[in-house]
């Protein structure tokens, strides 16, 4: 079992602590939080070992799980990597592109592994259809959340939209050509609602909307490609796959047939991929353990996390 320590015991940090404590792939050594009062409270309430010094925790483990505010990701990861520790870093990977690129260099220099916590890659709905998303040409995403003061220290693009940016980059095999975007600050000092149009060199266009001042929660993505429409509901963990194929010469009574202007007939049919119920956060943590133990490539590499950050920052530059 890999010895693991958690940096940060906020809302998400406590979730990571609980899951790592339950995991059969890790031995939870303890955690560090700069807020000693919160650290002692969490230790007393849940029984985890609280380290009063970050360096002491790093020295005692094989893997460092960084669940601190984004501004401190770089410093925490750098300290851990320079001591040869593998690092799991919550998204976004860092606050700046330069910091992210430096972490990639440290990963290579110290021959360790890093993974970024883009948890939607492990959402069972997305996992069920990812292999069916092939050469999409139009993508539309809506990620809407009710207001929560937690996370408002960064623009909504880095808080919410980056989830969809990463998911899109994982299925579009093309370089970004152009980005247009707009954002509005309503209650925070940084944009609370944003829309971005990302154009890729292969002609694919992605239209993304993110808001943290919505009256309801929504996390949906729609992928349109030749002869197929795929909808993913990340919140409800549901999918819809609608496909077309050449219509049979003698359609059945209940077959759905479309005919275009050229007279070509297509039959519409539905697929129902099986969705495997899972805990996405536990899955991302345990697949990272497998990558370390088997010396394979993590599911979300530091380079991929950096690419998502780069695109997110380009979106923000448009405001």
UniProtKB/TrEMBL annotation:
One of its GO terms (molecular function) is nucleotide binding. Residues 156-216 form the GFO/IDH/MocA-like oxidoreductase domain. SUPFAM superfamilies: Glyceraldehyde-3-phosphate dehydrogenase-like, C-terminal domain, NAD(P)-binding Rossmann-fold domains. InterPro entries: Gfo/Idh/MocA-like_OxRdtase_N, Gfo/Idh/MocA_Oxidoreductases, GFO_IDH_MocA-like_dom, NAD(P)-bd_dom_sf. Residues 2-118 form the Gfo/Idh/MocA-like oxidoreductase N-terminal domain. This is Gfo/Idh/MocA family oxidoreductase. It comes from Ulvibacterium marinum.
């Amino acid at each position: 079992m890999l010895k693991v320590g958690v940096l940060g015991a906020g809302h998400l940090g406590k979730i990571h602590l609980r899951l790592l404590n339950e995991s059969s792939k890790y031995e939870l050594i303890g955690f560090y939080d700069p807020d000693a009062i919160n650290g002692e409270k969490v230790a007393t309430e849940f029984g985890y070992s609280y380290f009063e010094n970050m360096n002491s925790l790093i020295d005692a483990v094989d893997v460092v799980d960084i669940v601190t505010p984004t501004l401190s990701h770089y410093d925490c990861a750098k300290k851990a990597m320079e001591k040869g520790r593998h690092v799991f870093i919550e998204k976004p990977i860092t606050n700046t592109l330069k910091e992210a690129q430096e972490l990639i260099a440290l990963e290579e220099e110290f021959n360790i592994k890093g993974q970024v916590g883009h948890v939607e890659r492990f959402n069972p709905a997305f996992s069920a259809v990812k292999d069916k998303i092939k050469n999409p040409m139009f993508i539309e995403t809506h990620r809407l959340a009710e207001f929560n003061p937690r996370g408002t220290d960064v623009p909504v693009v880095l808080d919410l939209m980056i989830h969809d940016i990463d998911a899109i980059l994982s299925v579009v095999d093309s370089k970004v050509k152009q980005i247009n975007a707009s954002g509005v600050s309503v209650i925070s000092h940084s944009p609370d609602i944003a829309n971005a149009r990302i154009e890729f060199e292969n002609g694919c266009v992605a239209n993304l909307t993110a808001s943290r001042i919505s009256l309801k929660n929504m996390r949906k993505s729609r992928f349109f490609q030749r002869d197929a429409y795929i909808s993913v509901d990340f919140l409800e963990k549901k999918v819809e796959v609608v496909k077309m194929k050449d219509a049979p010469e003698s359609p059945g009574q209940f077959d759905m047939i479309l005919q275009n202007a050229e007279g070509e007939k297509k039959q519409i049919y539905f697929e129902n991929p099986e969705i495997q119920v899972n805990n996405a956060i536990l899955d991302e943590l345990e697949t990272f353990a497998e990558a370390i133990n088997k010396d394979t490539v993590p599911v979300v590499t530091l380079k991929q996390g950096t690419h998502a950050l780069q695109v997110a920052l380009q979106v923000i530059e448009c405001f």
